[in-house]
Design a protein that fits this description.
Radius of gyration: 28 Å
Distance between the termini: 76 Å
Helix content: 55-70%
Length: about 70
Amino acid sequence: MSDDDDDDLRVVEIKIPPTASQMGVEDMRRNLDDMIEGGQMMAKLLRAKYLALLDEGFTEKQALELSKSLEW
């Protein structure tokens, strides 16, 4: 390879798009505070449901079983 050949060389930048998993991680980073707050709200709803079931006369075991989902 001579010095003349070096003149024809150039750096080419290739941009590789992020993978779906990388994009998912970035979405989670951006939304982390909202996700944590949503989890806290869900926990409060589940506890309120459990306590309401106990107040209505369900046993602890029944109330716990019925509280395993947020479906009312």
